[in-house]
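task queued by scheduler; priority normal; single chain, no ligands, no partner chains; default sampling; output format set to structure tokens
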Amino acid sequence: MTTYLVTKEKDLARGSVRIPSKAKLAHFRDYVDSHTRGKSEATLVIDDHATIGDIFHRCRDNFFEGQAQLRKKVKLLLVDDIPPTALNALEALFKNATVLPRRSSLPMEEMVEIIAKNDAKDYVIGGQCDRLTETVTLIRGDLSKLAVPFSAFRPSGSGIEPDFSNLSIDDFGQSICLGKYGASTHSILYEFDPTYRKEKKVAIAKHDKGFGACLRRLRILKQLKQSDFPGVTSKEIVRIEQGKVTPRSQTLSKIAKALEVTPDEISSY
């Protein structure tokens, strides 16, 4: 799949935005003339919603043919603010349509570089907070979406609370910022994407095996201290994490309750 940054700005074509080797930069007329009739799949990254109107105006004589090709093979990432009605239209026109507000997305050059990576799904390029459902929807580099509850962003050890009115992405897609509060992309994906967790666990298991290691990873993920388990001493948690003892069923239940998971789920981390 090829990634295109489609823009009306000729200055971008002269190098003001760095495009990685797996991505291409195209003026919108060049894209329409050369690539809508191609056979390969593509991801379009567009920095202005007006550009989409120009594309379809250019294709007006063969609109339905062009629409069929777009729905079959083209994903769209639009970085702009648009009304809900426009989003419905884009979802009908493209194989996949994702819209990101400028204020909560990565810089364009970083975004395009991540999309072109083989492990793009391991990065977050933008997102939105919704207070009605109390979720943060994260857009990953492969344009898949992950909904994460507000409750996942627990106050930090220094007492910093997440500000859900101020979402931004930092550190080349590896940090999720909510005002002054920060969470690592890895920790969020590890907790809420079972496939990601399984893949990473396979790699981790080569160096760190056993129930104790799983417990330690999950405890850190939940931002809990070894003393944060009611009914279980910190000394006992240390011994379990070091693999020196196996917890009894009653102890395991208390640990799972503090971690807000089932006892069986602990070993999946």
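post-processing summary
- The radius of gyration is 23 Å.
- Residues 232 and 251 are 7 Å apart (CA to CA).
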